[in-house]
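User: Can you help me understand a structure? I only have the sequence.
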Amino acid sequence: MSTIRLARAFSVIGLALLFTGCAGLPEAYPPPANPFLAGASPLASTTLAQPTKVGLVWLAPAGPAIPSQASQQNLVNKLKARFAAGKRLEIVGATMIAAPQGDMLAEVRKASASFNVNQVLVIMPTGTEVISPVWLHYGRDGRAVGTRTDSYVTVSLVGLDLNSGKSLYSVVANGEARLLATDYEDARPFFPRISPGRTSAFIYPDRATFPPGEVHAVALEQAVNGVIYELDRALGS
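Assistant: Let's start by predicting it. Here is the structure, written out as tokens:
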């Protein structure tokens, strides 16, 4: 009986181990792409005036390694809710626009005009991915050919003075997520699983839980959480 229980315990650990030859891929965080980074002091060396009311303008890039606009909008909403009325830093309004190709300052001013503020937080993510073939080990003796998708996202935030166009402060945060998946359409009970960072991956009940591209959304949220942490620290929260 104990042997059966042990076998079941190992099964629940599914997709946890990688073939050693595939474990050493280097990190591939992309460089920040925020157009207002030049001249901005690091947030860690900046004292934020409190309380401060700001707007938030999210510059949404395009590309296969970037999460869907719905995923990006969810994080815009998360930031606005995190720094709501009564906080030391209050985001009074937030909007998401496509990363402009022309006069970026003019586009940001136009997007934030209804917020009636002097400063905005301009946020822009950029991402990349690395896909590798792997052996996936699960249970006691299970093994399958599969793929490992590592998604790397960098989020850069710049505090921008709308009147002067001066970049006041900046913070850059990285996020990573990993997806392990077998090459089989139906490998029940062994399904793919997304995990943040470089932790082991475990099974989840249904393949549909994570639609294609969701690995990028997990990595992006990790990076945004890093931005929130840095803002909280600068505010003494």
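Now, to help you interpret it: Residues 214-235 form the longest helix (22 residues). Confidence is low (pLDDT under 50) at residues 1-24, 200-205. Let me know which part you'd like to focus on.
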